[in-house]
Structures are given as C-alpha cells and as structure tokens.
Write a structure and sequence with these properties.
Layout: H1 2-7, H2 28-31, H3 45-62, H4 70-79, H5 86-100
Helix pairs in contact: 3-4, 3-5
C-alpha cells in the first residue's frame, strides 16, 4: 500500500490525525503506522435511540414533514437489531425525511 509506505518517512515532528468509520476494512499495514488508536464506538443502544429521535425531530421541522408520527418512528427504531453510529443515523434519517418532504426545495 503506497500510503502506508510513505507514512514510515513522515517527519516525527508532524502529528497526523486520521478518522474513519470503516476501521475493520483498513489494511493492517496502514493501521500499524499509527501510534495511538482510539475507538469512539462506545454508544449504548439507548444513546443511539436518543440520537436518532433527536435527528428525527430536527429534520421533520427542517423539511416540514410534521405529519409523520414520532411514536411510529420510535417503534421502528426500537425494532432495529443493530443501530448504526450517529453519522450514519444522521444521513439515513435526513435523506429519508428529505425524500418524504412535500417540497423538494427544502433539501
């Protein structure tokens, strides 16, 4: 991997910070070049549900799709076996509500 080979020669006075939501897919050769790896995926199910509910409330107002049932959304979210992390939740909810909006200009 070209990037991993170049990281070996990086000036030691440079601090390189990298983020990804696809850590398991990174090549081991690349990961070995980092001194510290911090996993921020320590969300409880309740926290992810609360985050999803907050996104739903925000985007139903933003896209003027207020006729959607919050209780139905809560029920759907409670049935999802594995909730995605906040970044993915935001994209899924925002895009779904944007496509449900009466006026496409709101997106």
């Amino acid at each position: 991997m070209i990037l991993a080979n170049h990281l070996k020669y990086l000036n030691e006075q440079i601090i390189l910070i990298s983020t990804t939501n696809e850590y398991p897919k990174l090549p081991k050769l690349l990961v070995e070049n980092f001194d510290v790896i911090i996993d921020f995926s320590q969300y409880s199910r309740e926290e992810l549900q609360l985050i999803a509910q907050n996104y739903f409330k925000k985007y139903t107002q933003d896209f003027e799709v207020l006729n959607l049932s919050f209780k139905l959304f809560e029920k759907i979210i409670s049935k999802v076996e594995q909730l995605p992390f906040p970044g993915q939740l935001k994209k899924i909810i925002k895009n779904s509500l944007a496509l449900s909006a009466d006026t496409p200009n709101n997106f």
